[in-house]
Amino acid sequence: MKNVNTNKKTDVRDVMNEIKVIGKPNDLSDFWFYVEGIVDDEGNPTVFHVTEGTGDNLFEEDVKEGFTDYIYYDVFDGKITYRMIDAYGSGDDADTLDDMETDGGMALLYNPYRDLTVQQICWKVLNIFGVENPEILTVRILTGKWADEKFLARGKGKEANGSDHQVERNLIIAIWVKNKGDYQAIGQYLVNKTEMSAKEEASLLTMEQKAVSEIGGRIVTCFDEDYLDSYRKMKCPPFCYIEKGDVIIDTPIRFKDGK
Fold it and tell me: Is 93 helix (H, G, I), strand (E, B) or coil?
């Protein structure tokens, strides 16, 4: 259990707000999130449960240091669904989730929890958890039916209908890299049902993910629900693209011929 402060008074809130958050918590004082790219050996995303501190866990030395509040967080492996999270408050699935808990702790705060944005809360939790440069990551809030369906799709790769979303996503990225993003070449590759060995796919996928991570971006594929609508309307939409930053202006793309 960690109780280490890494949030100094000199923290730059502008940096914390650079972290991209998709979704909005129903209750800022108690919410769940996961991060693309932070997964276990089986591809399950690490899930964080964040709650507002009650204020009664501060030691005298903490108060003397100037701390007034804290974030309490628990960490779970990703073999969970929203239904389990939803039942957690009632205790119905408490034992199951407790078995999946892998870490947890407190992030001490100089300012009240309620003064923080969701971006700042997620940044602080990831920072104290040991993630370097959390501001370059994409956080997904787990709420409602969206979480129940999409979390499964991005976690184990199994959606409700049993389709293997993650396997298809990884394969299209590998094909995209192999064909250097050439739309026609990728299309022909798929039409011909050209085989790719698991070793080559893993090598291409790892190489690209490392390169994209180094520039602080992420790969978005045509299988992802946040793939730009304007791209889907194109005659030849990209199978994949690299996204960097947290501002997306998704407007229709117009060409000279008006299409």
Answer: coil
Distance between CA atoms of residues 245 and 135, nearest Å: 10
For the entire predicted model, the pTM comes to 0.54
Q: 147 near 82, Cβ under 8 Å?
A: yes
Please give the Cα distance from 19 to 69 (Å, whole number).
Answer: 22
pLDDT in tens, 118-129: 999 999 999 998
Q: Which residues contact 237 (CB under 8 A, 6 or more apart)?
A: 222, 231
Contacts of 32 (CB under 8 A, 6+ apart): 47, 48, 49, 50, 85, 141, 142, 143, 147
Res. 81: pLDDT tops 80: no
| b/e code 232-250 from CB counts within 10 Å (16+ = b) | eeeeeebbbbebeeeeeee
* CA atoms of 192 and 182, how far apart (whole Å): 15
Alpha helices in the chain (DSSP H): 13-16, 60-65, 82-88, 94-100, 118-129, 144-154, 165-178, 183-191, 198-214, 229-232
